[in-house]
Amino acid sequence: xxxxxxxxPLITVDPYFxxxxxxxxxxxxxxxxxxxxxxxxxxxxxxxxxxxxxLGYRNKIKKMTETYRDxxxxxxxxxxxxxxxxxxxxxxxPLLPDNLTLLSRPxxxxxxxxxxxxxxKHDVRINLTVNATLCKNxxxxxxxxxxxxxxxxGLPTIRMGNKNQxxxxxxxxxxxxxxxxxxxxxxxxxxxxxxxxxELWRAPLAYRTSSAVKEGEDRLFLFAYDDVFSxxxxxxxxxxxxxxxxxxxxxxxxxxxxxxPVCKEAADTFSDAMTAKAYLSGGExxxxxxxxxxxxxxxAHKLAVAPDGKILWISKECFxxxxxxxxxxxxxxxxxxxxxxxxxxxxxxxxIYHYVESGSWNFDFAPHDxxxxxxLHGQVYGLNRETGKLQDRFQMPVxxxxxMIIMETNIALAERNAxxxxxxxxxxxxxxxxxxxxxxxxxxxLCTDDFAGHLAHNCNLTLKAILxxxxxxxxxxMLGDHTAAEHYRALAKExxxxxxxxxxxxxxxxxLAFDRPGTYSMKYNxxxxxxxxxxxxxxxxxxxxxxxxxxxxxxxxxPLDNRADYTKSDWLVWTATMADSRTLFGKFISPLWRAYxxxxxxxxxxxxxxxxxxxxxxxxHRSVQGGLFxxxxxxxxxxxx
Length: 641
Fold this sequence. Notes:
By secondary structure, the protein is of the alpha+beta class. The chain has 15 helices and 26 strands. Strands 5, 6, 7, 8, 10, 11, 12, 13 and 16 form a nine-stranded antiparallel sheet that branches. The protein has a five-stranded antiparallel sheet with strand order 4-3-9-15-14, with no helix packed on it. Strand 19 (about 300-305) and strand 20 (about 310-315) form a beta hairpin. The chain is globular, with a radius of gyration of 25 Å.
């Protein structure tokens, strides 16, 4: 792996249970939550009585030298050295997409081992300190945290949690969990957890353990979090999949300790296969990007079980406004899930259908979201807090109608049946009618790129409408409604032909908006025409568009459009995927790889950054990086008609 990750994933389970390292070495900076707030874990190794750090940061403690780091889809590996030993540190969370129980189990592993460098025998101890920042959002104090030290089937364990337990009592964006219990277990019966003296730790509550280890022996640490309840689903508190039948966190930890060899092998197999697939599809740099994105994308979701027993895959709109189950955040993320488990895409859509079909949504277009994570009580985007009403100006009618139909079409194609769409066919038809009525030349409204502001006559929204109508034709055909299917296909073809005329600049490129000649934008929504093989846009038209766009590329990527120098990583890869050659695809991808490799913004992958400086504009740790898998999805061919 050659990419210098701006932030290394260590523990990646869900939007709350998240620990990252954001420095040039694992022991240069404190470990943090994806928001940047401290989630502190500190590791040292004592060799023949001399202690040096290998994980996290403390002033005045000597550091080991990091000599190697690497990551793949499910593993982060780091090697540290001093003059006596070489220390191997591995973090792994078995987020296997075809095993939903394991995917949702909130247990992550750290494995530490060593070898002698000087060929001498040494007395070596691995020391680990965990801090109550891991279980509280607000200021720490001893009175505010309950701490116990249970033993779980021979595993000495620390358990800490807020004394004031109010599950699902807060929602928001840039916050951490303030309820539930953090646990850390070590696979060493002789280890003991004890409170660390305050003078050694700037925060007032930290516990540490120490474990002797022999050369070549793995010392296993397990990090876990019991959130008690995961999602407030329209007034009903829901558990996650792993504990829906009453399994305790202690049972999950014991199970994870026994499962480690199997999980390790499965994680390696999955990661190797994903890397190979990405490399064949787009080359080494593309494989780097997908490998770094995978854990982040998964950990921006929570897997819960609805009252009817069906799964819900709830995203959090990280570093934006914290919206839950956001339609235009789900939309860019789906390529990864369509590749590995389309059932998760259904889990994204179920909350939207529930909200609309329960009668709680009073518009003839699709909603933007169903709440603010982890509380799903209805749309909050554009909500006037004083009146309790949604503001018309902050809706995304064409955007969200098109997104829902396109996502539904992809589920049907991935599974080669439209049974899921059949359950919601009337709702989908109503949204398709909205696209037919208003998609040709959208009024002044927002699209998913709402940070750029309102835009009338938005060409990308018209493309969204065209592909949404085409998708509706596919669904109708699969459901045996052939007359309707022909109607939708004919409309999509007619509207695509009109688009190519009205959007043309005359030089092979198309405009940002129909009334703005000489402008440009990435036409990322057009990618589904290639993925599905619907043939709405001729190859020459697409090729000329991409060849014109590539001329606008800066050092760190192609700008989203002519209005600013910033870009969106997901849309950039969707645009590049339409290229008809590996060479042209690479011209789009290389600057994106360079942005993450060189950016001074040391955060979990940002999807919104400046193409001149490489610096984050905003947004980090977002699920939309699932969109980076679009090239693999297109090459896979599983969605092609």
